[in-house]
Specification:
alpha+beta, 9 helices
């Protein structure tokens, strides 16, 4: 009853304020309408990304908008590499050519999706085979499980035995991600983890950009928020056989880093 009375009092006070100051009515209505229109459009954009990570409904959208988006990188900062080292990248990554055609456009935070320059359907099966094959070839250090990030796709993981062993050579990044190395999306774009030096090269050669939660420096006193480490990248989907081979090189070096085994 007390809360109800307070609400009635607030409503009465607001009505009295509007009556005494009729000039504020139009700005209030205009602002409320603008916010409502923005929310509707943003929710539609969220649904257009498809399922992934959070619930595929208004509650998932609200969680991302209120709890996650304030901590996310700006879209322009997703291609910034000033906090990554200039030396130490794998030779195979250094040897990759620049990606042709410039960057693809990405959208969203969770889910995070590629919107332009998408891979053709013919690339999807070979890409999945590439991921399946590397797990089959290295069953002692890799396994396939449902992605902890996406929840709708399988992902490559560091073997649980390595993850639980405090003496294993895996980097701290693998512990932050709870062992998840990366996964493929329905559009054939790929999320993967890398060393900082490799991440710098891949972004600068236009093969990738950061996930918008991939911060390396504290923000509001926090880092590795929501279980996302600072080198979590989106790799644009392969558009032809040549780019599929590039993806093979990229995946192999991601696995090397996340398992701590260079002679994989």
């Amino acid at each position: 009853m007390k809360n109800l009375s307070l609400r009635r009092l607030d409503t009465a006070q607001l009505a009295d304020l509007v009556r005494k100051n009729p000039g504020i009515t139009i700005p209030l209505v205009g602002a409320s309408t603008a916010v409502l229109i923005w929310c509707i459009k943003d929710y539609q954009d969220f649904l257009a990304l498809g399922p992934g990570g959070v619930p595929y409904n208004i509650f998932g959208w609200a969680a991302i908008t209120i709890l996650v988006r304030p901590f996310a990188l700006n879209e322009k900062d997703a291609t910034w590499t000033g906090d990554y080292p200039s030396e130490g990248a794998h030779q195979e990554i250094l040897g990759l050519p620049p990606r042709k055609g410039g960057r693809a456009k990405l959208s969203g935070i969770a889910p995070h999706r590629q919107m332009t320059q998408k891979a053709p359907e013919s690339m999807k099966a070979p890409l999945k085979e590439l991921f399946d094959d590397i797990v089959k070839k290295h069953p002692k250090v890799l396994e396939t499980k449902r992605s902890l990030y996406e929840k709708h796709h399988d992902a490559i993981f560091v073997q649980s035995s390595l993850l639980l062993d405090p003496l294993s050579p895996i980097p701290q990044t693998a512990r932050i991600s709870r062992g998840e190395i990366g996964h493929i999306h329905h559009d054939a774009s790929v999320h993967l983890y890398f060393s900082r030096a490799d991440a710098k090269i891949l972004i600068e050669k236009n093969w990738a950009e950061r996930h918008r939660l991939a911060r390396t420096k504290p923000f509001l006193g926090r880092v590795n928020m929501f279980g996302v480490a600072g080198t979590y990248l989106m790799i644009y989907g392969p558009r032809d056989e040549g780019e599929l081979e590039t993806m093979r090189t990229i995946l192999k070096n991601s696995v090397k880093f996340m398992t701590g085994i260079e002679d994989l």
